[in-house]
From TrEMBL:
It comes from Crocosphaera watsonii WH 8501. The keyword Manganese does not apply. GO terms for molecular function: endonuclease activity. InterPro entries: DNA/RNA_pol_sf, HNH_nuc, Mat_intron_G2, Znf_C2H2_type. SMART domains: HNHc. Residues 184-213 form the C2H2-type domain. The keyword Hydrolase applies. It comes from the Bacteria. This is HNH endonuclease. Keywords: Endonuclease, Hydrolase, Nuclease.
Length: 235
């Protein structure tokens, strides 16, 4: 059975000019669990499917947080600004995982950061708590609530309308509203959003504290990089 599965995958990729890397590929039982793209997948003995951040992903994230918190080059307010996008991005990436419990809820990590912030002479317990709230913003999550692809759809079918609209369902809040307002098209290049590139929010006036809807524009990741490289008149 395993040989047949591997053969089917090899044939599928071969038709697209790709091949399986023998060094990086292995077949395992779903009950044994495996890591992929920063997640750990496993089917438990009771038949329940679980997906959590992988051990390596969690350690790498905590290391980045620790480096910022323990850095002596700047104070707690600057640290909070640097931590916020890092924490928000990590929580968004894992928003369909099981994040219950103190470990993945980051309670322990945020508490250690609070102790460091609270030691600063210009801060008290109240101001340190407010900074922790800014540094560790909450992100809604729902385990296993992935947006399923219709059974007859494929990224290779050329249906840009379907894949662009599906992209809208993968994002919450402001990003979702921007995608709807822009008819699922990039605000910079005008092309539809496909499923292979992440959507970024661009602050038109350059002020990252200005979150007014008129100042936000949904763009491709590559377009966002291009804008900030100064190769265009847009800011």
């Amino acid at each position: 059975m395993q040989d047949k599965i591997l053969k089917d995958i090899q044939e599928f990729l071969a038709d697209r000019g790709l091949k399986v890397s023998e060094k990086k590929t292995k077949l395992v039982k779903s009950t044994d669990g495996f890591d992929f793209l920063g997640w750990h997948f496993k089917v438990h003995s009771n038949g329940k499917f679980r997906c959590v951040p992988s051990e390596d992903n969690y350690k790498a994230f905590r290391k980045k947080v620790k480096n910022i918190v323990n850095c002596s080059n700047y104070g707690a307010r600057v640290k909070a600004k640097k931590l916020a996008p890092l924490v928000r991005g990590w929580r968004n990436y894992h928003r369909y995982c099981k994040l219950d419990g103190s470990r993945f809820s980051l309670w322990g990590t945020s508490h250690k950061a609070f102790k460091v912030f609270n030691k600063e002479k210009k801060l008290n317990r109240h101001t340190a708590t407010e900074l922790i709230k800014k540094a560790f913003p909450t992100v809604p999550y729902s385990e296993n609530r992935h947006v399923n692809v219709k059974g007859n759809k494929s990224p290779y079918d050329g249906d840009t309308v379907y894949w662009s609209k599906r992209k809208n369902k993968l994002y919450d809040g402001i990003t979702s509203k921007c995608l709807k307002r822009q008819d699922h098209s990039c605000g910079h290049c005008g092309l539809k959003f496909m499923d292979d590139e992440r959507v970024h929010l661009h602050h038109i006036d350059g002020n990252h504290d200005n979150w007014k809807p008129k100042n936000l524009m949904a763009v491709h990741h590559s377009c966002h990089q291009y804008i900030h490289m100064g190769k265009t008149g847009k800011v």
